[in-house]
């Protein structure tokens, strides 16, 4: 698991650090999968090869985790996702639609909302509708009203992702870091 977290971008690494210990591996697995899929489908790659690689992931994630090939660290990390594999398959479809299809980011963003709902279920059903609303605001599928939805502590990584996404890329790195700390520690 440490090898996977070391490959994550700083924002995802920080977000995962605010997850409860019981669900942290699930967050890391999700972030690592999304990064691997985005790398597989990055611009400049042959669309046919992208589709073949994404089909491999779709096929693996569609099977029970007991049938997954051994030796792939990311698949091993995704093993606990077995009851929520459909959310991971939807992410593969969303990445494919983003990079190969014509739908743009909408399908990927809908899949991200599904991933957050699955993570909430793994956390004991924490948050329900508030998690979906926060995820839709994070992805830009829904405009954010004045107040942020109150999310349970178990969904603190989503609080951080949503809050930084709504603030945009502007501002100094130091202020973004302080904002990330505030969101992670206080949840608002």
What does it look like?
With 188 residues, the chain is an all-alpha fold. It has one domain. The protein is built from 10 helices and no strands. Helix 2 runs antiparallel to helix 3, helix 2 packs antiparallel against helix 9 (156-167) and helix 7 packs antiparallel against helix 8 (129-139). The longest helix has 17 residues, at 24-40. It is globular and about 40 Å long. It comes from Novosphingobium pituita.
Write the layout of secondary structure elements.
Elements: H1 2-7, H2 10-17, H3 24-40, H4 47-62, H5 73-78, H6 85-99, H7 106-122, H8 129-139, H9 156-167, H10 173-186
Protein name: Phytoene synthase
Beta fraction: under 5%
Gap from first CA to last CA: 29 Å
Number of E-type strands: 0
Number of domain modules: 1
Give keywords.
single chain; 188 residues; mainly alpha; globular
In short:
With 188 residues, the protein is mainly α. It contains ten helices and no strands. It is globular.
